[in-house]
Design brief:
Structural class: mainly alpha
Number of helices: 44
Radius of gyration: 52 Å
Low-confidence stretches: 109-115, 180-321
Oligomer: single chain
InterPro entries: Ankyrin_rpt (IPR002110), Ankyrin_rpt-contain_sf (IPR036770)
Pfam families: Ank_2, Ank_4
Keywords: ANK repeat, Repeat
Mean pLDDT: 80
GO cellular component, one term: cytoplasm
Number of domains: 4
Length: 920
């Protein structure tokens, strides 16, 4: 060990002894006040004990200062000090044991009289032995203490003195001064008397109202209560009482000390945030204070060990709490000290109430006491909340005075802040402790839609307040203002596991749900707190309870939590698809955990998605290979088959492994067509190289790779497919040549591969309909007939007229030799009249110029009859001027053109027909 470690160990043992000494001082003070008759030599024993305590605190202060400044004592010196500290601790333990036994006998009642009488025969030997042991310890440590006194000075050492030491020293001085009146029931102390500490050079004066020390198990309603006061400067504060209620030394024999009253004194120092009020002694690095709340009766004589175990000792306020032991302290506010003002007439005035608030803000406890005793109410209303004001000032003495005079501990201010809430917000633990004893309810919200004090403490994750409230009955299953449970709120606030364990040990429901239906386990998993997950499971959390969803779903995001849940009984059969979720979020650790737990690697999520396809989709090679190695089936489809997924998501690197694992490229068919559809030339080449047919049809669309390449206008794919054996005579969703008329470049490549292009009826009309004159030319060059009708009805010429493709009409008439009188769905000239948009007669004139006969009747119609029905004189004259008119032609109803004009009352048309030249 290094010198620093030896020094740290010695300092720890020294602190352990001084803390025990502080507790012994309190026990000794209790015994002095509780004993019906003091043993011979008790006062001397107390003084010897105080001497040793002061020496120990001197050395501790020196060691703390040396450690703080980085100095190290010689190893031999620290080892010798360590040995002496252990000896002192052993002496203190013996003294504490004797005091505890004596206190127990004093409190035992008449039934213990024989025991006390019997022990008195031997007590004369115990006190001298203890004095002798303390004397040896004192002498062995004296020189070390002097060394630190020389280096630090008395002021630094006095600051480290414990409150128990201060209280016992002052009480002994008071008892010695009042020894002349011992046994007198009606004697009164000299007015203005004060008690100085042993070392008065720092002007720290302590007054102890001995009549206020009331045991929480047997509290009396006293006519008067004085609290410990202190001052760091100026003359000592007077200890003044009214004559009619002056305490007597003899009265002390019938009262037990109140621990809290011994533990805290107020000094007018600058206010600092602290769990405790200001005290006479400035806190050292180890924060030596007395406990903030009265322990149960059975702890009074239990020594420091029991206090440590219960989290009540000072050490537990600066170190991690050990929540393994549940402590519940019963509260009986009726037994707490109360005081009725001697006068209440005329005291309830605004000015006096304001004076009370001013006195509280100025930390003038004497003025507060006087005002309350004159009848100023402690509950002056929500606008000026006296208790809350005292708590904000961290003035425990005033808090106790207000409660003593009837302040309501649960009353809230107009800002919906109750005293307990104020104590939590201010970090004033001592005030919270005394409020709880006076009936403050840590479960009571100060107003609707506000959090209770306990909830506020949990939101702040304040260990001290949480433990205190739990000891005094906090409801661990209450719901916060925003609908959270205590557990879910604490987990959200990222608290320590020790706090969660503490709450659970006090009965929190590990399965309780928030208003959103979330359980603590769900919240812990979401936060990734595997330690809290384990704690909740240890306390009965159901890993299969939806909250709001099954716990394995969120745990998939947290592999460690997932592993714990599966080991602790979570049923993965209730979460079908969890493997796919783990794959989708790329959690290979979760995938491994699930595989090891026996989850099926082929199980689908939502009945569709498989883990293997998701791994391919997300390009997670590690998960892909892990799944295949653990039995994933390469032929189980998700939204598509795994092999198809490799093509659609450009994951060609996975295809060889899939095929080697049993992936079938031929069932279902269509994988090559999929490669074309997704523009994956590399995949298409690989598939063709590995035996996939270029003519396979997709099961649903019946498309072939070639027809898809044509449809998507991919000439490069058409070229590859034709060169790799694709058959242009195999129909896909349509015939390849019929689809190719839309893309002349592809058609040009395709026509040479066709043995008989004319075999595909209607292809010319399709090219015209697509307005692709280049395709028309290519088809004509390939031998396709210009009159090739589609469906036996639609001719290329009539389609060109219908679609108003003038260039194609002209090409068909002038270059291709299309017959202007060959009908399609109608005669070309009739179709031209029906598609006529005035004044454009270009197509009509083209047809007439190429020999279209307007008098030819087809299916009961001719161009002349159509012109009469249209009532267009210009068109009728144009037709007659070119060809003349056949007045004997009849329509499908047997009427001639003149009869049709007469029936319609069109005299102009009738006149044109009569005057027109006759058709030859």
């Amino acid at each position: 060990m290094t010198a620093d470690k030896y020094q740290a160990a010695a300092l720890g043992h020294c602190h352990k002894a001084t803390v025990l000494g502080n507790v012994i001082a309190i026990h000794m003070l209790e015994y002095i006040m509780a004993a019906t008759g003091h043993h011979d030599g008790l006062n001397e024993l107390a003084h010897d004990f105080l001497d040793v305590c002061r020496i120990m605190w001197s050395i501790e202060a020196g060691l703390v200062e040396y450690t703080r400044s980085g100095q190290s004592l010689p190893v031999e010196m620290t080892q010798e000090l360590d040995r002496k500290f252990n000896t002192a601790y052993t002496d203190f333990q013996g003294l504490d044991h004797w005091l505890s036994r004596s206190l127990s006998e004093e409190r035992g009642g008449p039934g213990k009289k024989l025991t006390r009488s019997w022990r008195k025969m031997f007590v004369g030997n115990e006190i001298p032995k203890m004095r002798s042991a303390l004397g040896r310890t004192r002498e062995s440590l004296r020189m070390s203490a002097l060394m630190f006194q020389w280096s630090l000075g008395e002021a630094k050492i006095d600051e480290s003195l414990g409150i128990g030491y201060t209280a016992l020293s002052a009480a002994l001085e008071r008892l010695e001064r009042g020894s002349s009146s011992k046994g007198s029931v009606k004697g009164s102390p000299a007015p203005g008397s004060s008690h100085r500490k042993e070392h008065a050079d720092h002007s720290q004066v302590v007054e102890i109202g001995l009549d206020e020390h009331i045991s929480p198990t047997n509290t009396l309603v006293l006519p008067r209560t004085n609290t410990i006061r202190s001052s760091t400067s100026g003359p000592p504060a007077p200890f003044s009482l009214r004559d009619d209620h002056a305490p007597r030394i003899a009265d002390l024999h019938h009262q037990e000390p109140n621990w809290a009253s011994l533990g805290h004194m107020d000094a007018p120092r600058r206010r600092t945030p602290s769990h405790h009020t200001d005290t006479v002694s400035t806190r050292s690095a180890h924060s030596r204070t007395t406990p903030p709340s009265d322990p149960p009766e059975d702890l009074r004589s239990g020594g420091l060990a029991e206090l440590d175990n219960l989290g009540l000792s000072d050490n537990d306020y600066t170190h991690e709490l050990k929540p393994s032991k549940v402590v519940r302290i019963p509260v009986n506010p009726a037994k707490m000290p109360r005081w009725v003002p001697r006068n209440s007439v005329g005291a309830d005035t605004p000015s006096l109430k304001l004076n009370l608030i001013v006195a509280i803000r100025e930390r003038n406890s004497k003025a507060v006491e006087q005002l309350l005793d004159r009848g100023v109410p402690a509950n002056i209303g929500p606008d000026h909340h006296a208790l809350n004001e005292a708590i904000r000032q961290h003035d425990l003495e005033v808090v106790r005075l207000l409660l003593l005079f009837g302040a309501e501990p649960n009353a809230a201010s107009n800002q919906a802040v109750s005293p307990l809430v104020a104590a939590v917000e201010e970090g004033f633990l001592d005030a919270a402790a005394i409020l709880l004893k006076y009936g403050a309810d840590s479960n009571l919200p100060p107003a609707s839609e506000h959090d209770s004090p306990f909830a506020v403490a949990t939101i702040k994750a304040d260990t001290h307040f949480i433990r205190l409230f739990l000891m005094y009955g906090a409801d661990v299953n209450q719901i916060t203002a925003d609908g959270e449970t205590i557990l879910t709120k604490m987990i959200t606030n990222k608290c320590l596991r020790t706090l969660i364990d503490m709450i659970l040990n006090y009965g929190a429901d590990a399965n309780g749900k928030s208003k959103e239906g979330e359980t603590p386990l769900f919240r812990a998993i979401t936060a990734g707190r595997v330690d809290i997950v384990s704690a909740l499971l240890d306390h009965g959390a159901n890993p299969n309870l939806p909250g709001p969803k099954h716990m394995l779903w969120p745990a998939t995001y947290q592999p460690k939590c997932l592993q714990v849940l599966l080991h602790r009984g979570a049923d993965f059969k209730k979460t079908s698809g969890i493997m796919e979720l783990a794959t989708s979020i790329n959690k290979i650790d979760s995938v491994s955990v699930l595989l090891n737990a026996g989850v099926d690697p082929n199980a689908k999520k939502d009945g569709v998605y498989t883990p293997l396809c998701s791994a391919i989709r997300d390009n997670r090679a590690d998960i892909f290979h892990l799944l295949l190695a653990n039995g994933a089936d390469p032929n189980v489809p998700a939204s598509e088959f795994p092999c198809f997924k490799c093509v659609t998501h450009n994951r060609l690197q996975f295809l060889p492994r899939l095929v080697s694992a049993g992936g079938n490229l031929h069932s279902p068919k269509g994988i090559a067509e999929t490669a074309v559809q997704f523009d994956n030339m590399e995949a298409l080449a690989w598939l063709l190289d590995n035996g996939v047919s270029p003519n396979d049809q997709a099961p649903d669309s019946k498309a072939t790779p070639l027809t898809t390449a044509i449809r998507l206008n991919k000439p490069s794919f058409v070229e590859v497919l034709l060169s790799r054996g694709a058959n242009p005579n195999v129909r896909g969703q349509d015939w390849p040549v019929c689809m190719a008329v839309l893309y002349p470049v592809i058609l040009k490549r395709l026509l040479p591969a066709l043995a008989q292009p004319r075999a595909f009826k209607g292809v010319m009309e399709m090219a015209v309909s697509a307005n692709k004159i280049e395709s028309v030319k290519l088809l004509l060059a390939a031998g396709v007939n210009v009159e090739d009708r589609n469906g036996g009805v639609f001719s290329p010429l009539t389609t060109a007229i219908r679609e108003r493709h003038k260039d194609i009409v002209q090409y068909l008439l002038d270059e291709a030799g299309a017959d202007p009188n060959s009908p399609g769905e109608h005669l070309p000239i009739v179709k031209a009249l029906r598609r006529y948009e005035p004044p454009d007669t270009e197509i009509i004139e083209m047809l007439l110029r190429k020999g279209a006969d307007p008098n030819k009747v087809y299916r009961g119609h001719s161009a002349i009859i159509q012109a009469v029905e249209m009532g267009d004189a210009h068109i009728l004259r144009l037709l007659i001027e070119k060809w003349g008119v056949d007045l004997d032609a009849i329509d499908d109803t047997g009427r001639t053109p003149i009869e049709i004009a007469e029936m319609r009352g069109w005299e102009e048309g009738k006149d044109i027909l009569i005057r027109g030249k006759k058709a030859v």
